[in-house]
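Friendly challenge for the regulars: who can give me the structure tokens for this chain first? No prize, just bragging rights.
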Amino acid sequence: MILQSLTPSEEEIMQLIWNKGQIYFRELMDSFSEPKPHQNTVSTFLKILVEKHYLSTEKQGRIYLYRPAVEFVEYRKFVLKRFLENYFNNSGRELFNVLLDEELITSEDFENLIKSKTVFATKKQEQENHIQDFIKEITSDKKSKKKEKDKKKKKDKKK
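First reply, four minutes later:
Bragging rights claimed.
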């Protein structure tokens, strides 16, 4: 599914729903701080978010339960990619340089991040190797295993 951009108001509503996980209209209205938007305005935004496939609905009697159809993490990736395209020439390196220059991230933070990613990748590789070994073991030629067991039994009987 191709995501569409959200307006600031649509994004505000989605943030409230992502935080709750699922929500009824009345709960959503209660979540807004003062001055609260008009109910018709919120209803219109909910309709648009359903049309954009950001929300799914479940009718329960006369009311609807709204659930995110797009996870927050997925939306965040979409926004970040668009941000990189629009402001950093699609370059993560340029973004990183600005983060460093503006002291929003330190080189120490970056080094720690790289170390933790390396440790995670190593653990993941080790886990995959264990899984591959297990798959080989359970899919290996069963006849040879049976022959080895039979030989062991014969040796044990001779003793």
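Helices lie at 8-20, 25-31, 39-51, 72-87, 92-101, 107-139, 142-158. Residues 8-70 form a domain with the Arc Repressor Mutant, subunit A fold (CATH 1.10.10.10). Your move, everyone else.
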